[in-house]
Amino acid sequence: MSDIRFPVPVRLRLASAEERVVANSWEALECLRDRWPEGARGRTYRAACRVCRDALDGWRQPDEARRAFVKAARRAGLLEDMAWFPRHTT
What we know:
two-stranded antiparallel ribbon; 2 strands; 43% helix; 17% strand; DUF982; DUF982 domain-containing protein
């Protein structure tokens, strides 16, 4: 099992205005399991769990896990500050 840091940490705003900075797929899985709102555990939540587990097993890259986690956090309304999310340029 390998856990490499996300290229850029993800800053979340959880219940009761609590802030959480998630820096790798292990922390993302902990947050998804323990801190995620029950009403936001849909398709993007399940995808983020799967991709983060795959990243821990070395089957996915950390940036893939981060993208899935950010997508789930956006859907759940937990993103703290959009400045933490660099725009993808091609």
